[in-house]
Automatic annotation (TrEMBL):
Protein name according to UniProt: MADS-box domain-containing protein
GO cellular component: nucleus
PANTHER family for the chain: SERUM RESPONSE FACTOR HOMOLOG
Species: Ficus carica (Common fig)
CDD domains assigned to the protein according to its UniProt record, in alphabetical order: MADS_SRF_like
N-terminal signal peptide: none
An example molecular function term from Gene Ontology annotations: protein dimerization activity
Entry keyword annotation includes Aminoacyl-tRNA synthetase: no
Amino acid sequence: MTRKKVKLAYITNDAARKATYKKRKKGLIKKVSELSTLCDIDACAIIYSPYDTQPEVYPSPLGVQRILAKFKNMPEIEKSKKMVNQESFLRQRIAKVNEQLKKQKKENREKEITQLMFQGLADPNSLLGLSLLDLNDVDRMIDQYLKDINERMEKISLEQAVDEDYKPSVVVVQAEPTATAESSSAMQRYPKWIMDLMINSQLQQQQHNGLQHEDECYASL
């Protein structure tokens, strides 16, 4: 079962607010403890509330004083590098949300123009009532699609040309079959077109040796 999303607003009921405070305070201190243990860092917490006479501190008063003293002795640039207050935090959140909204509007506009483009291809009369801005966006979308198609076609053509260049030429040679174990093992190790080339080379060598032998016989006569 999914947890119900909590509405971040001031709790007007006193009893509910006090119960929420105690529950959240315990969870916050637990998270600080886990962060310090898991990441081996110095972390402390000081919590003031109208329900306690003394502030709640973690890990201890001496531990808090040690960590605060260490923080005060740091250079000013290091202290303020990642420090945020409520105003700067909200500004960062607003900027992030605005960026997400801008991105979403762009995606929605692209989907809208894409739909108009395909509607125009099916029925050109559907473009008659569009504004000049919409027509310009449809024109840009068509140009982008054509560009993508041309790039894809060029890529396919290049791949086919490379495949043709590296396609091996097969030489078929009619040779007498040999039943030796060595040739059978070679047929299993190499592709057929390589074996054809090897057999062709052997036949040419045998023919050359035969002609050379005949020349020597004529010379002896």
